[in-house]
């Protein structure tokens, strides 16, 4: 027991502080029969703990006699005896001490030595006079009635405390005390529990909420607890995996990056889980049973896929193996978030393969790494679970997770193979729910290796494809992670049977007859078969391109003229013997002397004679067939062909490059499916003789060739005629016992009208969304009656007309191109043919292919391929310009410069500028514009013409301030600017000049250039923006326009200029996804109808992103169908105001509801809000109610509507267009709206009625 004065008792010291049983010091005020609040607390703690279990066992025998228990201590032991018991034999009550009787026991053994006392009172029951005894330190009359035992009774339960946690299963408790009455005089204490615990806030915490025990440890961050080797920046993290049960609910923490752990608190906060992967709950320092629903004493468990209370019906088991042998570090698989019961095994067999786990979100190592392997068993925490690892030294290397506990993040399994490793033997298994299971993944689909990238010693790749895991059907790569693709790609060596090398095949004559010169060396690319002995003799000449990756020997080498008086003189080379495939050229030679007299061949060196060389070694083009074309008809019997194309090594050439005599034409019959159509029969008789009825007819899909019925799938895409219609022969007459006063059924709260005449109305089909490659055509389908009222529930849902069909499903034409030609020596370019071919294999006009994807037909050659053929037209000098340097400013108008030098192009050397003065001098600086500004920028137009015909004048330009958006996009609408507030937008002190002095022509000139004002820029943004003006030659004497030849050509002003050169905003979320290569859902700035607007891009990880308007958090955006109806619907009480406790009947949740919106879908083409998109809405009650609508069945009295809606676009880039109106639907319906600049509040309803935005206009918005 703790003394009352210790620090641990400080919390309980209220009011009286000392003098209780556990006081550290005794004094006159000590009350030895009272426990302090601190003592009561710790005794109760002990009794409720497992340590007090021994007290629950009743004793077998009672060794205390009733004589002792029925008498008070002072009756059994008189005062002198009490002195002996306290101080020893011979001590007696001190007769001299002047103290109140019973208050303090003073004793003595010898009167000479004085009296002693422990400052304790006399024992209760000690006689203190005739008919008196001591009681609690006082002498009172003896009365045995007051000592009658009083049995204790429980008081009432106190209010529940606050919940100990906000989520994840907290605990609250209530207490009661044994004080009604308090037990006295040995009366029995109350039996039963004094405290009750109850679970609260049992909803799960989000994955971003830190572990509750982690939060408690972090409260000690920076506190060293005077422990050795800890610094003041210590960070504490939980210690899990303690063995003893009594330690589970103590707060054990360890310093981060250390394995040493310490108890920082005796008890964790109530509601803390007993372990990392345990649902048992700590309550008052004791681990109590709990379930996965975060409730005390619950028996609800996780099923195998981690669903609380699940029955395994939604679980999927994923298994597989991996045994690819590759040295290094390679990915095996990604284990997705939500997986449970993970079991990965690697049968080691003394190999050098090791399992590695990586965090799927951060890329950090979780278990093992490239440089460190754990040989022994260990536990690591990641993804919200404790992962057990067997250690690399185990016979079976194994990774497991606790039973049924789910990962909170992806984990990626890798394999590290060292040296000449054996193939790993990995098997894996995990369980995942259908909702969490990934739909798409990478697969080595069909095990198709790519073509070898070299004819010798090349590499092949097997690239994975994205597939839908359920069907194994191929999907777009955008559905799968690009990170995983890179590591799934496999490669292998190919064509290892040979090698390539450059070989000398011939040498030309020396360029000089005497002394040092040069001669050409002709090389060929040789393919050598290394599988043969003496393989240098087994070679094949191949195209030069196959050796391009090898360093080619020089084409020239030094030679030494023999200084002989004779030499060989050659004729020109003959034509090559073949056009491709390797031929020969020949020439004749004769021996001549210095005077070119013919000599006998014996006078010249025979080794220098070269009369034959190899030529045209490139491969010959060949015909190769393609896949069969689609059938010539989409139904019935047709034909298909197998087109052939001319190519060399996969490069498509013009057909004329191949031998037309070897071309094949293949053709065969084909039958796709029968041609089908809908066949209709006659209408049946009406089902009712009076009133509304139904008439039916048969609608059958038939083969149009033989008129036989076939499956309806053959008629898919063809609009099916209706097989049911309403009919009425005559009105029914009926005598009612009462007068029907209303058109609606009052007793059912139904909005169903007794008026008939509703039917499905269809609009015209829209043009196909694509001209080829599969598009969509749609039309409007509405349920409408003769009064123009629309409501889907009044038309039969089994006969809804088709509103969407596929169209133009044929394949789009595509570009085909041939190989590059040889480099043209004059133009230094090479060319190829590019043609457009349709799905049948026929060439079509180029405008049928997408011009944006057209491959180039011309490309420049490398300078080394053509510089020796450049002709200089007898002028070796020209200006040479460098690259433009960056613009001098990042915001607004600046200058950019480039270097200019005069060059001798023959010698490739720089000379002084005077050599080029006769040539037009290129510009070395130009005006440039950059708009990478923070918020605002000055924008200038081109300068106007000088105001003076001659001499000094003035020219002007427009300077306006504009808003700058992200990445340099500029709003082309200028801002109004107040000079007196010069820093509101643009900085006035940095404003460019809008006026400057200029010089006109010489005043003695007759002919001068004049210009009109600049026209409006052709584009509002982008690099294509151009403006033009009219420029003409003007006679100053006659004041007339004259021919341009009269004016100086060099003085002619510019007729064209760049304008609006800032960056364009993207026009849709789809364009942002494609151009910015992003898949992040968030707010972006786009341009809609040439105006900037901020929208939220959603589904950016799919092929069809969608645009939404993010509504301001403080805005009010909701729609409702009111959930009450007056018992007397023909009244309007409370002056039409809404009163919640009205005399009303409730309307069920299937016909009433309230929906709150925080984002609404926007059609950026029509600029209309799509009100029935509920992606970003919250249902407060009942059914979903579309945005901008409301309805009720409250009252039939006009002006008594109660349903409300609110549209608040404040804080967005939009406002409702001024022509938006609401239309009431229903006989008694009414609508009233209040409109401000950005907000509309509506009050709608009737008996039973609603209001919707006027059809044809909808919720049309404008950009502010």
From TrEMBL:
Q: Does the keyword Repressor apply?
A: no
Q: Which residues form the GON domain?
A: 1065-1264
- Main subcellular localization, coarse class? secreted
**What GO biological process terms does the UniProt entry carry, in alphabetical order?**
extracellular matrix organization; proteolysis
Q: Which InterPro entries does this one have?
A: ADAMTS/ADAMTS-like (IPR013273), ADAMTS_ADAMTS-like (IPR050439), ADAMTS_CR_2 (IPR041645), ADAMTS_CR_3 (IPR045371), ADAMTS_spacer1 (IPR010294), MetalloPept_cat_dom_sf (IPR024079), Pept_M12B_GON-ADAMTSs (IPR012314), Peptidase_M12B (IPR001590)
One function term, GO molecular function aspect: metalloendopeptidase activity
PROSITE patterns in alphabetical order: ADAM_MEPRO, GON, TSP1
Q: List ligand-binding residues for Zn(2+).
A: 3
Q: Where is the Peptidase M12B domain?
A: 1-59
Subcellular location(s): the record lists:
Secreted
**Which sites bind Ca(2+)?**
54
Cellular component annotations (GO), alphabetically ordered: extracellular matrix; extracellular region
What cofactors does the UniProt entry give for this protein?
Answer: Zn(2+)
Listed as disulfide-bonded, the cysteine pairs are 9-38, 83-107, 94-115, 102-134, 128-139, 163-200, 167-205, 178-190
Pfam families in alphabetical order: ADAMTS_CR_2, ADAMTS_CR_3, ADAMTS_spacer1, GON, TSP1_ADAMTS, TSP_1
What Gene3D superfamilies does the database record attribute to this sequence? 2.60.120.830, 3.40.1620.60, Collagenase (Catalytic Domain), Thrombospondin type-1 (TSP1) repeat
Keyword Protease recorded: yes
Cofactor stoichiometry and binding?
Answer: Binds 1 zinc ion per subunit.
| Keywords for the protein's UniProt record, in alphabetical order | Calcium, Disulfide bond, Glycoprotein, Hydrolase, Metal-binding, Metalloprotease, Protease, Repeat, Secreted, Signal, Zinc
Q: Which SUPFAM superfamilies match?
A: Metalloproteases ('zincins'), catalytic domain, TSP-1 type 1 repeat
Q: What is this protein called?
A: A disintegrin and metalloproteinase with thrombospondin motifs 9
